[in-house]
UniProtKB/TrEMBL annotation:
Membrane topology: Multi-pass membrane protein
Domain of life: Bacteria
Family (UniProt): Belongs to the PsiE family.
Localization (cell): Cell inner membrane
Entry keywords, A to Z: Cell membrane, Membrane, Transmembrane, Transmembrane helix
Name of the protein: Protein PsiE
Highest classification ranks of the organism: Bacteria, Bacillati, Bacillota, Bacilli, Bacillales
Amino acid sequence: MGKWNWDNARLYFPKTLQWFLNGCLITLAVILSILLIREIIEFFKILLISGGSDYKVFLANILLFFLYFEFITMIVKYFKEEYHFPLRYFIYIGITAMVRLIIVEHDHPIDTLIYSLVILILIISYFIINITPLERPKTSLLFGKKPPLN
């Protein structure tokens, strides 16, 4: 009987989890694609059957369509950027979700104000992300690394 090799376990465990995660994300992308197609069918039903008279439902469905679209785009970006979710896509999704919530649930003015403040915070966060450099500094005060002397 062979001895358990911890080096092999440390090598294969992250790869196994990465494959599992990739499979789950592909499954999620397929489900979201089906839901996206269902929303397109709902658009035609609203336009043809009801004549587009209920603009609130139509607008809410458009924003729901964009939420599905953004999630699918985020999954595509995850694979294109070598297993990394860009933070800005989460912010896009949050802004779209808040706008949809304001359109659908606008009965209480205080709630609408709070949703608007959330959108403002997300926009400020997006601005901060855009002005910060993409590269992380080589030194860290937290870990005590010293900068190289030139």
